[in-house]
Design a protein that fits this description.
Elements (H helix, E strand, L loop, with lengths): L1 H65 L2 H7 L6 H14 L2 H7 L2 E7 L10 E3 L7 H9 L3 E8 L9 E9 L10 E6 L1 H9 L7 E4 L3 E5 L11 E2 L6 E9 L2 E8 L8 H18 L2 H56 L4 H14 L7 E3 H19 L3 E7 L7 E3 L2 H14 L6 E10 L2 E8 L6 H12 L12 H13 L5 E7 L3 E9 L8
Parallel strand pairs: 1-2, 12-14
Antiparallel strand pairs: 1-5, 3-4, 4-5, 6-7, 6-10, 7-8, 9-10, 11-13, 14-15, 15-17, 16-17
Amino acid sequence: MKKKLIILYLVFTIIPLAILDAVVIGGILRSEETKRYHEMENVASAVKFACSTEVDSAAKLANSIYTSKYIYDFLNMKFKSPLDYYDKYRDFFNDTLIGGLAAQNDLSYILYVDNDTMINGSQFRRLASAYDEPWYRFMKEKGLKSGLFFDYNTKTVGLDSNTRKIFFFKVLDYYDYGSENVLLIDIDYGKFSRVLMNMNYDLNAYVCDNEKILLTNGKGMSVAKPYENVSMLKNIGYTTDMQVYNQLLKIHVVDKYGEINNWWERWGAYLLALALLNIIFPILLIIRINRIAFSYKIREQAMIMTRQHAELLALHSQINPHFLFNALESIRMHSIIKKESETAYMIEKLAKLQRQYTEWDEDNTTIENEADFVSNYLELQKYRFGDRLSYAIEIDPDCVKYLIPKLTLVTFVENACIHGIESKTSNGWIFLRIHEKNKDLIIEIEDTGNGMSTEESEKLLTSMRGADISMLKKKGRVGVINACIRLKMVTEDKVLFDIDSEEGIGTIINITIPQEYLKRGV
């Protein structure tokens, strides 16, 4: 009888529990494996986006120099004497915004010039002095016109000790003067590295070429140390390619759970203990499963919050250059056509506006401040369009202290100018109206421009309602997508967008923000 009871206990209690344990633990392990893979994938995506954003700052500075005929004319000018060069050098920097654009993005640059009448020094150096530089040899050997070069030396920067450097180079051949000029931009390695480390992911990701570890979000990386070899990386759990301006790099993410290769060594003791607990206290299995599930849920939520914070920081870095370059281009084209001396005054006014929004300590500002910024922007556009452009701003007094993301309204107004008024030959109006209705804040941006077809307006509305980070890499209305993303973030995706447009008549964009997501400023 005793033996039968033992057999029955084994058959109907121990064995079923063991099978159940195996199924549950197997499911947990598979779930953990999947979560770990997605965690590593998310880290790699965040690092890739951060790297692209940092390099884009240098690329935008390079493109502004690359397409400036004024700069080409100066680089190929023949100077009569050192004094003549100094006078024109001083006038050159007084008349351009290159220094300000570089300083705004923490960048420094050197123009290597094939011009023997220039004095070698400061931002301009003889091209011959670059022939022995590693970045120049790399550019020539690879036959590149632009790209990135990671180096560890002091020759170009004149420091007392070696340091890691990131260079962005670009051959200046947009206008053919029959000479070779090369732009070299020095990207701050320390700042680049801090951006990655501040993302606060638990997993370490490494940006590498075929031989060296170039950047990482992990600890222990110093600008004063030589680049380490890729072969030192162990337990790589995820790898993806990253194409950055003619250079193919790889992102390796280390699996922190990959240090134990033997499955039984990792989980055997745990399973034996669990089997013992099932015999004595079966209830402990349920408690353990609940705790593991809760732990995974908390970690997943923490990762989502961290990733959203990194995406918001990346959005901030895009807004100012996007607006600045569009406005400066408008003034520049107008001055070229009409040769007006007032242009310097208008650029000075624009610079004041830009300085107002350089600091991003807080992402939000009052509607009153934002409307003032819109008014100044439209005044700049009236300088360009003249009597062709009129505008009106109507804001309910009860709404002026509500907080909204910075540069939200001006982004939609700018879109109305460029896509509505610019291509219209007759006079046009832009209206900005803000009021409250049924516990909602209603924002209307209307223009009497060319309007859009039904297909175009539906496509734009779909993009606005479904705006996400990946869409910022595509061309067309990036500023509007950026503004929509930030509005969705501050309202937990409860903001509503609508478009009413008719070809030849104009366009109205409606933005509805629930009052529960609105805060008041000072």
